[in-house]
Amino acid sequence: MELKAKGFLFDLDGTLADSLAVVERCWSLFGEEIGVSPEEIISFIHGKPALTSLRHFMPEASEDELMTRFRWLEKMEASDTDGVAALPGAFALLNRLNELNVPWAIVTSGTVPIAHPRLKAAGLPEPKHWVTFEKVLKGKPNPEPFQLGAKCLNLDPTDCVAFEDAQAGIYSALDAGCQVIAVHAPEGMPRREKIHAIINSLEQISVTDTDKNGVFTVLVSKNV
């Protein structure tokens, strides 16, 4: 299949970079601290801002307590990049976009101290535009992050293809009005039928040159 787009918006963790080991190490330590199993922690946090997860697991904590825990987690995650690597197809796709001068941005729930070192550890190209936790009032699954991502590219969200791997991010991109390509989407996931394409790897994506109106063609191949 093919989609038409003027810009691209990428989630980072689980979409461009494999950082699962880091996330599981750090959040499992948090689980031990509050007496919640790593499995329960990991099943909830994926794709969501850290403060959203902290409020979920510490509903009676004060804002000061939450921020103290947030900074503790942020420091751990920012300093641990062991095992972070580019996911298959990510490097080639981003380089192709740069070669064609296609506007693109990273839209992540992570903070700057976490996201920037992970991108560097993965060896991926630096985007001109970042949307991180610090830049939004409401994080994923709210549509604000992808709305802001499109705005950074001076585009309407409908002219953007968003790549996401987490349910919260998929909902954020869909509600923003983006065309959404999901890197995996489990059977039975609510609103799965609204996703424009579901892939196993970014290796299934290719982009052809622009037409006179700055529109690029995104080709989605079968599983590779």
TrEMBL record:
Listed name of the protein: Putative phosphatase
The keyword Transmembrane helix is assigned to this record: no
InterPro entries: HAD-like_sf, HAD-like_SPP, HAD-SF_hydro_IA, HAD_2, HAD_sf, PGP-like_dom2
GO molecular function: metal ion binding; sn-glycerol 3-phosphatase activity; sugar-phosphatase activity
Keyword Metal-binding: yes
Source species, domain of life: Bacteria
UniProt entry keywords in alphabetical sequence: Metal-binding
